[in-house]
Amino acid sequence: MWPQRVSILGVGLLGGSIGLAAKKHISGCHVIGYGHRESALDSAAGMGAIDKWELDAAKSVAGADLVVLCTPVGLFESLLGQIGPVLEKEAIVTDVGSTKRSVVRLAKKHLPRPERFVGSHPIAGSEKRGVGHARADLYQNARCIITPAPDTDAKALEQVEGFWKTLGMRTTRMSPDEHDRLLSDISHLPHAVAAALVAIQTDKALSVCGKGFLDTTRIAGGDGALWRDIFLDNRDNLAGGLRRLRDELDRLAAELDNQEADKLRTWLDAAAGRRLAAEPRSHPQQNP
User: What is the 3-state secondary structure (H, E, C) of 152-206?
Assistant: First the structure.
């Protein structure tokens, strides 16, 4: 089965779970991990997520059939620059990043065969960090968005889709532009709102918060550096979403000021209906 040698650059929750799932579902698959902390890499090896590790990105991709970028998106350019000159001719590169336009541009800039880069975004994970939270079934029944460019190699695209399906995922294709626009509204904007809701609370208010507040703001507990990179990388779409949200909140404030009970009820009922319609039967945690 393909791939037989996988290099995972960034062995945290997502990368470690890829390693565990690949070794579970792909017979004979050898997984090499790259990172900058020996202790985390030792932990990944100890739990069986990787077979060996390297502190040098270029060395970690030697002989790899498939390379998966699993670091924050802000590190992608440096990593692609390091691995580009040493990739095997037939190697395929993919990623798990939450934004897609920039990584396609970087692949064209740094990879010798950019047509063999296939963008991926597995919608799985949680606000928890580190390989200690990795598990082999993290991707089971979750969705993976595949974002081919116009010149993406057709066979490479099929192989990457097949890889995620082997790990138990359902795949959907869309362009990098559409991905970044939609994910801004459904993932990046909610994170910004959750963080803002936490930011405006007083310490006294937080001391009496209940499950509703904690559920609403759960995602605000994510890695600040990772989300900073996502926000900046998708800043045009996110800024537009924030402006539309501000307009919606301004309309709500006006209805409150005017005590428009019927409009408020209609607005709340409409939101409740759309939320229920959007809820899947199985509801995995989401990667950004």
Answer: CCHHHHHHHHHHHHHCCCEEEECCHHHHHHHHHHHHHHHHHHHHHHHHCCCHHHH
